[in-house]
């Protein structure tokens, strides 16, 4: 992990040396004058700046320092500027704080206090960056509530937008916890049925003998305990969207009844005699391979074709490039609010572990993991132990074509780096250990915009 950059604007060589030595956990950049400081700011984009107000050509006044502060606040308002001032500068310090300086320290400097203030400034900057990035991603979110920057997911979301206004039955394929219900809700929200109900049922969670009455409803006296007429979920979804989760777990007799509904668009309540017309858009989901089940005779082929007019596959989290860190930040921000915790941020080892883990339980596992971490974290940081992740497994190397493997790895690591630094080319190049022009070349080679 490269050191964080700290810009020190100071014309006194003795103080320059003192700060450089005292703050060696940072990559300290030194500038003596305003133009030099602005050049360093543009080039290195440090998150935190310490500055003396008395800079040449006005070392005894504050005009240069205040002008520099104004320039920094305009050019990079998120930068945290800490003003280092002499005792007699009180008026100018107040002016600086009013102009947007983050904090001030009086000379002679107390090294421990200054280190603490700088640490807080970096921390606050990190939290604000995270929040800004999340707000931007949520605003850019392809479907509301779906957080992703992975090309495969974005493609899937575009398909959802195209399919949503149609009347086609949609089948969502994807591993458990990868967001099938979220996508189904997205389909509903983007359809003309959005004002009506979205009703979901999980076929695997309801015992077989109860599923029929849950789906189709029942008349009073239809069976022992049927004290009054009860509408089924399909009927409740009239005018809206009906979402059948884990459809692969439905027993054959019910499959036949569901097929009849899809063909005729009428239902009969259990114990009832009349047919009731119901208008719903059917979306179903499964983590099982229905086509294989159909071939093996465990799932009706005719039902399979009725349900799968459009099939959308949702990639598992392990295949989404850059999404792990992104989703972790999203859930962290969300749970900090819901658990009434002050803003937390991830320690670098925690983020690296999140990125390396394969998340077999997909987004749901990540959601639970981050909730736990937010609850367990002590202080202002989420440590590796707070995540409670199993030891990160070594990844199996599948590709033995060296050029292809190299290309794929290059692409993956670039997307990850860009996602980590919110698309900032300079910082991504630093993370990757290449120059900016090289990164531009690589991006154009891989078609990354
Ligand atoms: N891309 C995403 N962005 C934000 N939150 C997500 C995303 N994908 C899933 N989630 C959240 O993860 C959790 C699990 O998602 P969901 O219930 O939609 O998965 P599922 O595939 O339907 O799961 P199952 O197969 O177990 O029914 C939900 O809380 C959902 O809001």
Please give a handful of descriptors for the protein shown:
19 helices, Rossmann fold, Helicase, Ruva Protein, domain 3, PEP-CTERM-box response regulator transcription factor, 5-stranded parallel β-sheet, single chain, binds adenosine-5'-triphosphate, 16 strands, elongated, transcription, 4 domains, Sigma_54_int_dom_ATP-bd_2, ATP-binding, 449 residues, alpha/beta
Give a verbal description of the structure.
This protein has about 450 residues and is of the alpha/beta class. The chain folds into 4 domains: about 5-140, Rossmann fold; about 165-315, P-loop containing nucleotide triphosphate hydrolases (Rossmann fold); about 320-385, Helicase, Ruva Protein, domain 3; about 400-445, Arc Repressor Mutant, subunit A, CATH 1.10.10. About 50% of the residues lie in helices and about 15% in strands. The chain is built from 19 helices and 16 strands. Strands 2-1-3-4-5 form a 5-stranded parallel sheet, sandwiched between helices. A 5-stranded parallel sheet has the order 7-10-13-6-14. The protein has a two-stranded antiparallel ribbon with strand order 8-9. Helix 4 (about 90-100) links the parallel strand 4 (about 80-85) and strand 5 (about 105). Helix 18 (about 425-430) packs across helix 19. The two termini are about 25 Å apart. The relative contact order is 0.08. The site of adenosine-5'-triphosphate has 18 residues, from helix 7 and helix 15.
């Amino acid at each position: 992990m490269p050191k964080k950059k700290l810009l020190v604007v100071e014309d006194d060589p003795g103080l320059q040396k003192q700060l450089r030595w005292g703050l060696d956990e940072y990559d300290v950049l030194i500038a003596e004058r305003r133009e030099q400081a602005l050049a360093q700011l543009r080039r290195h984009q440090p998150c935190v700046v310490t500055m003396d107000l008395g800079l040449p050509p006005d070392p005894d006044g504050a005009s240069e320092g205040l002008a520099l502060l104004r320039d920094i606040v305009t050019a990079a308002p998120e930068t945290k500027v800490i003003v280092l001032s002499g005792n007699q500068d009180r008026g100018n310090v107040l002016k600086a704080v009013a102009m947007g300086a983050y904090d001030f320290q009086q000379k002679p400097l107390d090294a421990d206090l200054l280190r603490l203030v700088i640490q807080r400034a970096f921390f606050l900057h990190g939290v604000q960056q995270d929040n800004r990035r999340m707000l931007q991603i949520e605003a850019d979110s392809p479907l509301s509530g779906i957080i992703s920057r992975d090309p495969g997911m974005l493609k899937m979301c575009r398909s959802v937008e195209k399919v949503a206004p149609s009347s086609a039955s949609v089948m969502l394929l994807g591993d458990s916890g990868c967001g099938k219900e979220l996508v189904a809700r997205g389909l509903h929200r983007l359809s003309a049925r959005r004002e009506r109900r979205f009703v979901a049922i999980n076929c695997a969670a309801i015992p077989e003998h109860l599923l029929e009455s849950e789906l189709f409803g029942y008349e009073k006296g239809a069976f022992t305990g049927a004290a009054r007429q009860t509408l089924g979920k399909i009927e409740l979804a009239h005018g809206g969207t009906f979402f059948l989760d884990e459809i692969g777990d439905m027993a054959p007799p019910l499959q036949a009844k569901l097929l009849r509904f899809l063909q005729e668009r009428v239902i009969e309540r259990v114990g009832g005699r009349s047919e009731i017309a119901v208008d719903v858009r059917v979306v179903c989901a499964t983590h099982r391979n229905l086509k294989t089940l159909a071939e093996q005779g465990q799932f009706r082929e005719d039902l399979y074709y009725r349900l799968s007019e459009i099939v959308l596959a949702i990639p598992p989290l392990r295949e989404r490039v850059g999404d792990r860190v992104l989703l972790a930040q999203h859930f962290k921000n969300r749970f900090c609010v819901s658990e009434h915790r002050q803003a937390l941020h991830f320690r670098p080892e925690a983020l690296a572990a999140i990125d390396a883990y394969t998340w077999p339980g997909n987004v749901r596992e990540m959601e639970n993991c981050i909730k736990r971490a937010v609850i367990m974290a002590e202080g202002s940081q989420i440590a590796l132990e707070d995540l409670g992740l199993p030891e990160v497994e070594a990844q199996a190397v599948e590709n033995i074509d060296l050029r292809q493997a190299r290309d794929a790895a290059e692409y993956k690591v670039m997307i990850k780096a860009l996602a980590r630094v919110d698309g900032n080319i300079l910082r991504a190049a630093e993370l990757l250990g290449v120059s900016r022009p090289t990164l531009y070349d690589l991006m154009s080679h891989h078609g990354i915009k």
